[in-house]
Amino acid sequence: MVQFRDRRIWLGVALLILILLGCTCGLPATSTPVQTVETPTPVVVVATPTPADDGAESTSPRLQQEQMVIDIYKRVSPAVVYIEVTDDDDPEGGGSGSGFILDLEGHIVTNAHVVRGGEAIHVYFSDDTVSEARVLGADDDADLAVLRVDTLPAHLEPAELGISADLQVGQFAIAIGNPYGYERTLTVGYISALGRVLRQESNFSVAGVIQTDAAINPGNSGGPLLDSSGKVIGVNSYYRPSNPLGGSIGIGFAVPVDLVKVVVPDLIALGRYRHPWLGISGYEIRPELQQALDLPVEYGALVASVVEGGPAEAAGVRGGDQEVEVPGYPSPVPTGGDIIVAIDGAPVHGMDDIITYLQHTRVGQEVLLTIIRDGSEASIAVELGERPQN
User: Which of 141, 143, 258, 353 is catalytic?
Assistant: First the structure.
């Protein structure tokens, strides 16, 4: 009896274990939340065949952006030239700069300040050949010049011109030039700003200038600024030095290629470019000026003076007839003149707007100025003349 009872006990224990196991298998999943791990965006790498030391091809992984720049440099850098300028009367005179091949006829674009005052100009090509060049034309106000060599190396292709009108801040900007004589140096950055208006040594201004943080140093002048397709969007011309010895601090400027397309053909055909000209000087109407002079508008270009015999004077535009001291202005401000608020219907907020607009016009073209005179609005048609040489 005892043995039978013990067997029943063990059978009961076994049955209980089976029941518990069955319940465990049927339990629902726990409610512990699933943690989502954010997957980082993968960096696209391309495996590009590159020649190894033994002549065989090897693959070297590169970022797509790196490969883009590499391809642009290989394609465009042969069109970039080193320009050496010497002065026969002054052995220590002259200088050097950059330029790029414009066409197969031997035309080379550079800056006017690179070749200014030079008597002998030599162009060094990427294949180490050297040619003597002559200046076909130069324009100090746009800081552009065109050289001509008799013969181009057979294998070199011209740089392709792009468009600067539709550029956007944040686009890639790629500069190739010869800073400090280091031939065909590449620097990469971004378009930092557009539409800058910079005053030249002639006191006239060039508009639509491209600002970039791609390093531009002495010797880069005249070289191309390229977009991400390798097309020329500007001619590197200015840099802001970080110290008296020079050196870029990431503020460089380039003449826009759209202006190159306008000026260069005239430099080739005529030796000079005829800049359209109104013949006025003036001030942008800022709040402090508007309040100090009690002007009837909050924006526009206040005409300070008109050049005697100039287009504006001939059309009847009036300059100031009295001077007023205005806080913050270094000299008295001529007042009483017309206020230009539009040109051909385009709003004018200051003189820079007028300079920018005129850069897209031609000598002999008529423009319509909307002015405020004695508190009333009027329109004056002006036939643009040719800007004086100095």
Answer: 143
* Architecture of the domain made up of 276-386: Roll (2.30)
Element (DSSP H or E) covering residue 72: helix 64-76
The two three-digit tokens of residue 368, written as one number: 């319509």
Q: Fold for domain 172-270?
A: Thrombin, subunit H (2.40.10)
Our answer to whether residue 221 is catalytic in this structure is yes
Show Cβ contacts of residue 30 under 8 Å, excluding neighbours closer than 6 positions: none
- Catalytic residue, chosen from 113, 192, 227, 248, is 113
CATH architecture of 77-149: Beta Barrel (2.40)
Mean pLDDT by 10 residues, the chain (390 residues): 46 48 41 43 48 51 89 96 85 82 96 89 94 94 95 92 96 96 95 92 86 94 96 90 69 95 96 94 93 93 95 96 90 94 96 94 96 95 89
Terminal Cα-to-Cα distance of the chain (whole angstroms)? 132
* Options 98, 131, 164, 221, the catalytic residue: 221
113 is catalytic: yes
Q: For the whole prediction, is pTM greater than 0.85? A: no
